[in-house]
Amino acid sequence: MQRAPAGAAPSTRGTRDRRRGGPLRRVPLLVWMFLLVPLAVELFWVFWPAMNSFSLSFTSWKGVGAAKPVGLENYQRLAADPIFHTALRNNVIWVVGFGGLSVVGGLALAVALNRPGRGVGFYRSAIYLPMVISLAVTGLFWRVMYQPDGPIDAGLGVLGLDWLQRQWLADPDTALYAVLIAAVWRQVGYIMVLYLAGLKGTDPTLEEAAAVDGANAWQRFWRIVMPQLRGVNTVVFAVTVIDSLRTFDIVWAMTRGGPYNTTQLLSTYMFQQAFTVVNLGYGSAIAVVIFLLAIAFIITYLARQARAEES
């Protein structure tokens, strides 16, 4: 076998081969299993059903037998369905009310509790505690609160506001907003924690410099602190929009979409059509609408944020 002459440069082919895919080869098999097994489960239980919903939305299917292709018939029915229109309008109200109140309330609480003091940790834990409770249990708890002669009506009576007492969940004018308040009560602690984490990452020296220059508290917060929370705002916006569009448990536990469909959301109407009426094709069409709305909201917001950063 011919040997390389002394002093000759070593062959680089083996070095290139070792470099090629080297880091991947050094990853232990156990790590690959921890990565690939959850990915396979996610693909099977989440992504495949989601993609299947798109194909089902163009069919008529009762859950047994073969699905019958109907083209765009389900979407044409949605355009003429008054309950779908009510659910869509309620979802817009829900996104604005749930998102707006949760964000404003969570940010205000985060600013108020972002300082050392006696009992601050207790208040943070108490405000976050409702987030630990499931949405179904939260809905049952607030059903008791809203019952005739329940705690809310009793409190109004003590304050001399008897004229405000009513059957909150049975009144079409108040049912949706009563459920909305319950949902915000649970969500506000989560938003508070996100903003507390963001406030901990801000630079206090910038605010101190602005105070020395004569900026008041509002100017310091709006012009110094808020720009540093841009990343947190993006996360909060995505979370609130997605949670708004997929809200189901608390509405179903409190009203089941009633009275007279006045609290229907897209998620509850989809559930009714898919699993109560067993019209899976029509329910899948509603699910596709929910998905498209979520994507449209988030992409629009991210595009606006990108343009704002460029300018």
UniProtKB/TrEMBL annotation:
Membrane topology, as annotated: Multi-pass membrane protein
InterPro entries: ABC_transporter_permease (IPR051393), MetI-like (IPR000515), MetI-like_sf (IPR035906)
Transmembrane residue ranges: 27-48, 92-113, 125-145, 175-197, 274-303
CDD domains referenced in this protein's UniProt entry, alphabetically: TM_PBP2
Taxonomy, superkingdom: Bacteria
UniProt keyword annotations, A-Z: Cell membrane, Membrane, Transmembrane, Transmembrane helix, Transport
Domain ABC transmembrane type-1: 88-303
Matching Pfam families: BPD_transp_1
Region feature Disordered, mapped onto this chain: 1-20
Localization of this protein: Cell membrane
The keyword Cell division appears for this protein: no
Family that this chain belongs to: Belongs to the binding-protein-dependent transport system permease family.
Official protein name in the record: Sugar ABC transporter permease
Lineage: Bacteria, Bacillati, Actinomycetota, Actinomycetes, Pseudonocardiales
